[in-house]
Write a structure and sequence with these properties.
The protein is mainly α and about 180 residues long. Helix content is about 85%, strand content about 0%.
Length: about 180
């Protein structure tokens, strides 16, 4: 299935191809014509060349529209994906905050949970940039924030390997923040 922008591009390219064939055919006829006919043919060829130039500009505009439509589709998918992935760090941050409020966790966990919560909120509600590079950086940040949330949960409630998961959660949270900083540039 093609989009309207792709249809417009295809039609414009077909017109360009037809105009080029007409120009070549007209140029091939010039040596065999008399002077009066040659002048008329040259006038017609000049008009076709002008039409060809306008049509080539339409093709360029249509190609740009196709590119923008594809980027917008990718941005929409990325926005949905990042929103779903941002649920994990936001939920972990909120639950951890509630546990700290009721005294089940120490205040030291705030150093790990607060950046994760802020990054999750930025991923969920921040505007997504217009370039493909910004979209891919936002996706990377969303995936790393989900991983950081999982590691944080294991560190909060896990026993035995808690130190390892605290370190991994801190590193993935730092990576998430780094991706968000790179995206903002």
């Amino acid at each position: 299935m093609t989009t309207p922008a792709e249809d417009q591009r295809d039609h414009a390219m077909a017109r360009v191809s037809a105009l080029r064939r007409d120009l070549r055919a007209g140029l091939a006829q010039l040596p065999d014509q008399a002077d009066a006919e040659r002048t008329q043919t040259l006038d017609a060829l000049v008009e076709r060349a002008e039409t060809l130039l306008r049509t080539e500009h339409e093709v360029d505009a249509a190609i740009e529209q196709v590119r923008l439509a594809r980027l917008e589709t990718r941005r929409g998918k990325a926005q949905r994906t990042t929103l779903y992935l941002a649920v994990a760090p936001v939920a972990v941050g909120m639950v951890s905050g509630a546990l700290m409020l009721f005294g089940a966790l120490g205040v030291g966990w705030l150093l790990l949970v607060l950046p994760l919560l802020v990054a999750g909120l930025r991923i969920a509600f921040g505007p997504l940039g217009p370039t493909p590079l910004m979209v891919s950086r936002r996706l990377r940040a969303a995936y790393s924030s989900a991983l950081a949330a999982v590691c944080t949960v294991v560190a909060l409630f896990g026993t035995g390997v808690q130190t390892v998961f605290v370190i991994v959660a801190a590193l993935t949270t730092a990576a998430t923040v780094a991706f968000l900083v790179q995206e903002a540039r």
